What does this fold into?
Amino acid sequence: METPETPTSEKNSDVLSTPERSIWSRLGFDRFSAVYVLVAFFFFFGITEDSFLMWNGSLEFVLTDKVIVLMLALAFLVPLTTEAFDLSIGAIAALSLLIVNKIALETDLPQGLGVLIAMGACLVIGWINGFIVVKLRVNSFIATLGMSQVVAAIIRNIHDGGQINGELSDTYRSFGKGDIFAFDWPGTGSEIALPWYFLYGLIITVIVYYVLEHTPTGRHMFATGGNPEAARLSGINTDRLTWGGLVASAALAGFAGLVYSFKVGIYTTTFGSPLLFPAVAAVFFGASQLRGRPNVWGTVIAVYTLAFGIKGIGLRYPREISWIQPMFEGLTLLIAVAIASRQLIIKVKKRKASADATPDEIPKPD
It folds into this structure.
């Protein structure tokens, strides 16, 4: 007696679909988990902490303060598209901040020229990173980690420690810190305002997004990161893209240092390297959002999800924030990588199931 065959549609369902897809995809957890978390933060902390939803209490502070972390995150993201890591971005940002303050302290040069010198120095560091990685074939993780120590030594040689305070002019700082707009919110007495450096950061974010997602250069960078050998054989200059990515990374990190000079107006030894981990965590968290790979808007969402979460925790547990913040960031990074790995495993299983299916089992287009 012959066993009745399973209908083709049922075979296709077993082979080409998984229960996880119906659960995760329909609710959007695989692409919008950070948005869900952000909404939960606003709901919970908005109810439990009176100042969380106040413009002057939390919103303005987080939006403006995290522009620096966002710039460093983009600095890490750009070379990552070519599978290169830049761990020197924190030190480069600190170098940029030091140069503009040191020139203001010890010379009579225009402070605008100091900005150009600082950015030029950062570009040189990025060029050297690219040379070491591309020409000397040193692993980017090792090369940029070593460069971060070299830059830290240069900083210490230029300045022997301590703050440089009050040397940047009001004119210089107003160029970045002056308000784009300011108005009183009706009925609340709160002034709504955002500084110019927030707009600068937004413009740079849009530019990076456009280049990576809507130009041949961006597509070639992702191709280089996805399969360098296949990209090279297809005619893409992978070395040039990797080198250029590291130079662009240094430029973005240098701009982060300038944003800090606009915002705070001083040089401090605590700036730079401590911001590396939050930036890296945001990039990998953002890679699990929207497109399932490193991307600009996923990174933006991740930066501000982490920021509002930490702000809410700080308001609720002010005494414990010193240890809760690094734990929160560390767990977020682990969870983000786990989610990304889970998505990759599901995709691989689906490809394998599709490849193993016979031609009769694969649905044909209507």
